[in-house]
Amino acid sequence: MRLAKLKDIAERVGVSISTVSRAISNDASRPVSEETKQKIREAALELGYKLHEPSRHANENNGTAAKRIACIVPQHLMDDHPYFSTVLAGFHKKMEELGQPPAIVRTCEEVGDAEKIRLMLRETGAEGIVAISWYDEELFELIQQNGVAIMGVSLNDERLTVPVVDCDRILSARAAVRHLIDQGHTRIAYIGGPAYSKQMESEERFVGYKFAMLEANLQLQGEWLMNTGWNVDRSFSKMSELLERLPKAEWPTAVFCASDMLAIPAMRAVVENHGSIPEDIAIVGMDNIDVAQYTTPPLTSVSVPKYEIGRVAAKSIVDYLDGHFPMATKILLPGSLVVRESSHFTRN
Fold first, then answer.
1. What is the pLDDT of residues 261-301, one digit of tens each?
2. Do the beta carbons of residue 151 and residue 72 sit within 8 Å?
3. 103 with 153: CB under 8 angstroms?
4. H-assigned helices in 152-289
């Protein structure tokens, strides 16, 4: 059975996801009316979303005092994103298991400047911040100056000075490209986006792609390196433009896409330009979102332990606030390649 999510409760009651989040976390800084809160609780119980009533005192099993932790996530990732909704589900579940109150959830747009950050910290009393795919160097420094711990989730940037929980994206991308090389491909394109430094070249999945290509003495062709800014429409348009510009004999024979969300429109571009997958172009994605197995043909992808990333992030921030370990650098979980028909083709 699919886990109930905040979005499911919001749709049942007819309110926003942020309202549901505030209601179940008893967010005193932005309270929800008792009538709406009761409707949300009833809907949550009907949908099988377990509401947790945390103790104000130490948890008897692990000696952990209740912590006020806030999750900050970009608005567009709140809308049942196939990757980040699973990360959040794992995070919330682990917080419950640890006897912790539900995390306060804010979008990065709601706390997008110094004044808003200070107000949020003051109103919520947050002791820790979990930044999910959100990075702002100046605001991170401000948060730390206020004595609040930060844990990053799915962040990748060489400038980061906060602990991060993520998949090992360099090794995962390298394994994906090596799979294509093992299938006989030497002309391998890349579709991705930038790191928080605004440069695609420093993004970890591109680093893994480049590592595998150079390791096999293969050339990186500039026009085959497509920076979409993580926009799915640009993935389709850039792939289409490349294929339309080149005669079919000069197409790349394979593409590694830094996410499944970018791979799916790239697949559409190949088909609309009268190409076959994988006979003309093999495609590999990353994240192994649920829909990857249902594309035509099914998409080869790196399976990222999304739910476990959320669980590890919750345990890590609580342990850190309890003083159980010093500030870490990175906790990287391994990915695994799931081979499907979009890449499984041996060339002569």
1. 999 999 999 999 999 999 999 999 999 998 999 999 999 99
2. no
3. no
4. 169-182, 204-215, 232-245, 260-272
